[in-house]
Write a structure and sequence with these properties.
Distance between the termini: 22 Å
Helix content: over 70%
Number of helices: 5
Strand content: under 5%
Number of strands: 0
Number of domains: 1
Length: about 120
């Protein structure tokens, strides 16, 4: 694989993981009854994931760099829920896995697209 095709694969994986993490957080918070207040909270929880999406689609390296910071709350949320809430361990494990994979793909894209002099 060439570095450009690897970077493109990482970009595609990043977009997919962002979408999967958004879907997981929405499903996690709307599981059971759907109320307007719960839907608003669920949408509010996904804002940090929606913010970098346009820059990721446009291949903006700076967006990939700061998007790594947007993943940390979901990792912490998954870790906290896995420890504190036994009924939600499956959701928490999925959140942890997706957050970690998203972080790895963001860093991988940054490494594959850096200039040779860096």
């Amino acid at each position: 694989m060439t570095p450009s095709s690897t970077a493109e694969s990482l970009r595609t994986a990043t977009i997919g993981l962002l979408a999967a993490l958004i879907a997981l957080v929405l499903a996690w918070n709307l599981w059971g009854e759907i109320a307007v207040a719960r839907a608003a909270v669920a949408l509010l929880l996904t804002v940090p994931l929606w913010a970098p999406l346009p820059g990721v689609i446009q291949r903006n390296r700076r967006t990939y760099a700061w998007a790594t910071l947007c993943v940390i709350p979901y990792f912490v949320m998954g870790l906290t829920e896995a420890i504190a809430n036994p009924q939600r361990r499956a959701w928490a494990g999925a959140c942890l896995a997706l957050a970690l994979l998203l972080f790895v793909t963001l860093i991988g894209y940054l490494r594959m697209t850096r200039a040779p002099s860096e």
